[in-house]
Write a structure and sequence with these properties.
This protein has 629 residues and is an alpha/beta fold. The chain has 25 helices and 19 strands. It folds into three domains: 46-73 and 91-281, 3-Layer(aba) Sandwich (Rossmann fold), CATH 3.40.50.970; 314-477, Rossmann fold; 495-628, Rossmann fold, CATH 3.40.50.
Length: 629
């Protein structure tokens, strides 16, 4: 019988002898590789943290003790050993378990995550609440080295050092390797520095020295300096010590016995402590070890070869963007590309390869990326900031204050706009129209296909002001979409795709084609509907919209964004101001709720913004109005 089948909770894990945990680790690797190969998901990060997760649950007492996972894309092992093994096949599927910690999914998920660098701040808040309620439990924040590039993480560390509470931060570092000699010496020092005997001796000695009249305080400072110098010779933790946080490490994150020993040593610490753990991203699966970036977040793949099973006769919008920007950079030396730890995800590998001195990956630091771009732009360069829609939310203040207020020519390439799919509510890009369209000076556009994406990118780089282009996650068929014909785009100019007198469908971005297909079905029912590819969220093509609204008096807007404050709202606001008699307007989009996980097709169907949903909504809307007449 597999060990994992015996484990319904962390209590069952504790019943295993330490020697069996390595066997369990291998079982978990097989389970995770097999399931991600079918469902897709975050592979490399989960394979790298199996031993670490087991050690944490072996020493600490979840759910009484709280483990906060930063980002949470490394929490698959955590889920498997906290009662969700039987449901693991549903991970990231519609109505299944989430690929991230979720507080309403399990009592062992102490805090919901999905975006990076929140764990330290959240864990510190939990500790303060614990103390105010006179409770006693331990709180840990498990954060990756990539997430430590965010200012939010350091804000949390700074506060933790100030409060001097017993927060334990586990720094999962998968960018370094430890040589055997350094690793052995580090482990030896950590055993000494975290042991009870050393800690008691340290406190007693400090108390004794400080009691010596006149010279006690000075001697204590000298002793502390000597200890810091000794540790500084071997350990890269002086930064954390300066913030008032005890540093332990680095230690091998795949040595379960050492991990357990270390966590036991620091479990009862009364001061903030950071444990630096070195792991190998993708460990145990050959292809993810060789290319952890590709296997960070993947779709279904063949286990034997590591090859994707997705449509090979298709190219993604991200790839189209990267290729187009690289081509435009050849024509204009002012073009700069900026990514926030998403070079591969945003399709910028080709740009970096050709123009390494014009490419910047600033790490998980979206606010910095935006203001950094503003600094480039104020000196005459043309920066393009490529960030996922959900992550650009983190740079909102900087977009307003540093870019748009100064009317600087920064281009925001907003990838993964709209419904993203299985990653769930933390990653759905359904807010960007709403949080961008009301900002003065900003031009906001969305292409219906690859040709318009290229044309809009070229237009944005020529525009003397800030602009944003939103485009979806997904593939564009090489057969049907990519061609040599040009797609002319002018700022604020929409495109009439179909003429009709009974109603008008005004769509934006990737819902244009479903809207057109729906209109063609309506025509078979005797309803002639115009279809407008809006292209621009801001500025609207007011002249065209007024003309068509005055003609049909029946307007249906379609978008893959929240209805509240979205594209349809912009159309509604404008047409309402024009006092058109008897006009009726229906808005299709995402209602006032967070979009759960599930495939893009399932979710678009749920919200009625696929072809069938648009067709049925239009038919019902128009039939109701006819009945009223």
């Amino acid at each position: 019988m597999k060990l994992i089948k015996k484990i319904k909770s962390p209590d069952d894990l504790k019943a295993l002898p330490v020697e069996e945990l390595n066997k369990l680790s291998e079982e978990l690797r097989e389970i995770i590789v097999e399931r991600v190969s079918i469902n897709g998901g975050h592979l490399a990060s989960n394979l790298g943290t199996i031993e670490l997760t087991l050690a944490l649950h072996y020493v600490f007492n979840s759910p009484v003790d709280k483990i906060v996972w930063d980002v949470g894309h490394q929490s698959y092992t955590h889920k498997l050993i906290t009662g969700r093994y039987e449901k693991f096949e549903t991970i990231r599927k519609y109505k299944g378990i989430s690929g991230f910690p979720k507080i309403d999914e399990s009592v062992h998920d102490a805090f919901g995550t999905g975006h990076s660098s929140t764990s330290i701040s959240a864990a510190l808040g939990i500790i303060e609440a614990r103390d105010k309620k006179n409770e006693t439990f331990k709180v840990l924040a498990v954060i990756g080295d990539g997430a430590m590039t965010s200012g939010l993480a350091f804000e949390g560390l700074n506060h933790a050092g100030h409060l001097k509470k017993d927060l334990i931060v586990v720094l999962n570092d998968n960018e370094m390797s430890i040589s055997k000699n350094v690793g052995a010496l580090s482990a030896y020092l950590n055993r000494i520095l975290t042991g009870d005997l050393y800690q008691r001796f340290k406190k007693q000695t400090k108390s004794f020295l400080e009691g010596i009249p006149k010279v006690g305080g000075q001697v204590t400072k000298i002793a502390q300096k000597a200890e810091e110098t000794l540790k500084g010779l071997f350990l890269p933790g002086i930064l954390f010590e300066e913030l008032g946080i005890n540093y332990v490490g680095p230690i091998d994150g795949h040595d379960i016995k050492l991990l357990i020993e270390t966590f036991r040593n620091i479990k009862n610490s009364t001061e903030p402590t950071l444990v630096h753990v070195i792991t190998k991203k993708g460990k145990g699966y050959e292809f993810s070890e060789k290319d952890p970036c590709i296997f960070h977040g993947v779709g279904p793949f063949e286990i034997e070869t590591g090859s994707s099973v997705s449509d090979t006769n298709a190219i993604s919008y991200s790839e189209i963007f990267g290729s187009a920007l690289t081509g435009l950079a050849a024509e204009d030396k002012r073009v700069i590309a900026i990514s926030a730890a998403m070079r591969e995800g945003t399709g910028l590998e080709c740009f970096e390869k050709k123009y390494p001195d014009r490419f910047y990956d600033v790490g998980i630091a979206e606010p910095h990326a935006v203001t950094f771009a503003a600094g480039l732009a104020v000196q005459g360069l043309r920066p393009v900031v490529a960030i996922y829609s959900t992550f650009l939310q983190r740079g909102y203040d900087e977009i307003i204050h540093d870019v748009c207020l100064q009317n600087l020519p920064v281009v925001f390439a907003i990838d993964r706009a709209g419904i993203v799919g299985e990653d769930g509510p933390t990653h759905q890009g359904v807010f960007d129209i709403s949080y961008l369209r009301h900002i003065p000076n900003l031009t906001v556009m969305a292409p219906k296909n690859d040709l318009e994406l290229k044309a809009m990118l070229e237009l944005a780089l020529k525009h003397n002001g800030p602009s944003a282009i939103r485009y979806p996650r997904g593939k564009v068929s090489r057969k049907s979409e990519v061609g040599s014909q040009k797609s002319e785009v002018e700022i604020g100019m929409a495109e009439v795709l179909k003429e009709g007198s009974d109603a008008a469908l005004i769509a934006i971005g990737n819902v244009v084609h479903p809207a057109l297909a729906a209109a063609e079905r309506l025509e078979k029912d005797g309803i002639k509907a115009s279809v407008i590819n809006a292209r621009f969220i801001k500025p609207l093509d007011k002249k065209l919209f007024l003309k068509i609204a005055s003609k049909t008096k029946r307007i249906i807007t379609v978008e893959e964004n929240m209805i509240a404050g979205g594209f349809g709202s912009a159309v509604l606001e404008y047409l309402n101001s024009m006092d058109i008699p008897d006009i009726k307007i229906k808005l299709l989009g995402i209602p006032d709720e967070f979009v759960e996980q599930g495939s893009q097709a399932i979710l678009r169907k749920k919200y009625g913004i696929d072809e069938e949903g648009i067709y049925q909504a239009c038919k019902a809307f128009l039939s109701t109005l006819t009945a009223v007449r």
